[in-house]
Design brief:
The protein contains 20 helices and no strands. The protein is mostly helical.
Length: 422
């Protein structure tokens, strides 16, 4: 891919992070969070803030590393330069074969869920999976044939998705009873470790902030803009998440949110603004989730290509490294990525159909493993010739503050979640 092909600016980098993080998890994980916290709004908001603090530190660390290079590959390139080729290869394979496809197919499935709600279809799991897979294929198609359309849709969907979050969050706070909701914190919720099960859904809601590094070589003035985007975006996300979570939960009621599940968004919109506006809110939600898939696909189609540029790291490298002369996109890499997504969609279907991951899904496993890799990267600061001791210290400090809490909490989530199911 041409190194001078700079098609994305600072605004797109910020909206890509916000667009990927905000788009599905905040809408369909709220009930999971409340189940884990025993219906406690205050405890749920606390875990949202706790996760955001860790993500901000991670963003600071990645932002520092991003300022040192603008080579293709994003965080994969950081592993190659600062941790060595073996760690880079391991992380690259994890990204290509586990992380990106697992996250992408779960969010695509959510498109099927909310698409069914929008058209009042009582869709089965199989139908939801099919709808999600079709949209995923379309997303791959237009990101290959018209890359600028993918960037435009990312900006558009990010703005659109803020509308229901702002309206429902603020309206819920104004017409609900947030004071009473936040005070409702039972001693039983704090005495055990059950509330740690909320970390998994919340980690999913925040996940995606590092995906923007995969297009770093296509961002204008990447060494300046990407660190800014990785620092500013998580703070914006925290403000939006806490406002929405507290507002809609205190208005609808924790018990109702847990009972309604994914349909609580439509129920809140109908109660606040009427059925017509509720339909419009659902449209906004569908568009926002589509934007999340779009952002993931934008990053994913470039990952096999990035690995194939390194000798010995990827099979079929001579094919996957080809860039279409007119489209400027690695088409074979995109096709390869979609095939892997198809396989993961089948795995996700089996896990969901047979309830193999109680109160969870395949994406949360990938997220937990990713933080283990972030911890490894933070232990390999840049060489002194590339940066100062102050710089190296902060990369390690920020990276560890991000990786260790997120990794521990995500792993505990599976243990606690299994106990809650039992």
């Amino acid at each position: 891919m041409e190194q001078n092909n700079k098609r994305y600016g600072l605004f797109t980098a910020i909206t890509m992070i916000i667009g990927i993080c905000i788009g599905s998890g905040i809408f369909f994980k709220n009930d999971n969070v409340l189940v884990a916290t025993g219906g406690s709004v205050a405890l749920g908001a606390f875990v949202f803030a706790l996760a955001a603090i860790a993500i901000v530190f991670g963003g600071l660390a990645m932002g520092q590393l991003a300022s040192l290079t603008d080579k293709p590959g994003g965080i994969f390139t950081y592993f190659e330069q600062f941790a060595g080729p073996r760690w880079a290869c391991a992380f690259g394979w994890f990204q290509v074969f586990v992380y990106y496809p697992a996250i992408t197919i779960v969010v695509s499935w959510v498109v099927g869920i909310y698409g069914s709600i929008l058209f009042n279809i009582q869709a089965s799991l199989e139908e939801q999976i099919l709808i999600g897979l079709v949209f995923c294929a379309l997303c791959f198609l237009y990101n290959v044939l018209w890359a600028k359309l993918g960037g435009f849709f990312q900006n558009f969907s990010t703005v659109v998705k803020l509308i229901p979050l702002a309206l429902l969050g603020i309206a819920g706070i104004l017409w609900g009873d947030p004071v009473s909701g936040l005070r409702n914190l039972s001693s039983s919720s704090l005495s055990g470790i059950g509330w740690l099960a909320a970390v998994g859904p919340i980690a999913y809601s925040y996940d995606g902030w590092v995906v923007s590094t995969s297009i770093s070589h296509e961002v204008k003035s990447a060494r300046r803009n990407l660190p800014i985007a990785l620092t500013v975006a998580p703070l914006i996300i925290l403000l939006i998440y806490v406002t929405y979570f507290v507002g809609i939960t205190c208005y609808v009621g924790p018990e109702q949110v847990m009972a309604l599940g994914d349909a609580h968004v439509t129920e809140a919109a109908a109660s606040l603004f009427g059925d017509t506006f509720a339909k419009a809110i659902t449209v906004f939600v569908v568009v926002s989730v589509m934007g999340t898939v779009n952002g993931l696909v934008m990053g994913y189609i470039r990952m096999p290509y990035s690995l194939s540029l390194r000798q010995g790291m990827m099979p079929f490298s001579s094919t996957l490294s080809r860039v279409h002369p007119k489209l400027g996109i690695p088409v074979h890499s995109a096709v390869f990525s979609f095939v892997i997504c198809f396989v993961w969609m089948a795995l996700h279907y089996l896990a969901t159909r047979f309830n193999l991951l109680p109160n969870s899904d395949v994406s949360e496993i990938a997220i937990a493993i990713s933080y283990l890799f972030f911890l490894v990267l933070s232990l390999f600061p840049p060489e002194p010739r590339l940066s100062s001791w102050w710089f190296n210290y902060h990369v390690q400090y920020y990276g560890i503050l991000c990786a260790i809490p997120c990794l521990v909490f995500c792993l505990l989530q599976f243990i606690v979640g299994a106990r809650l199911e039992a």
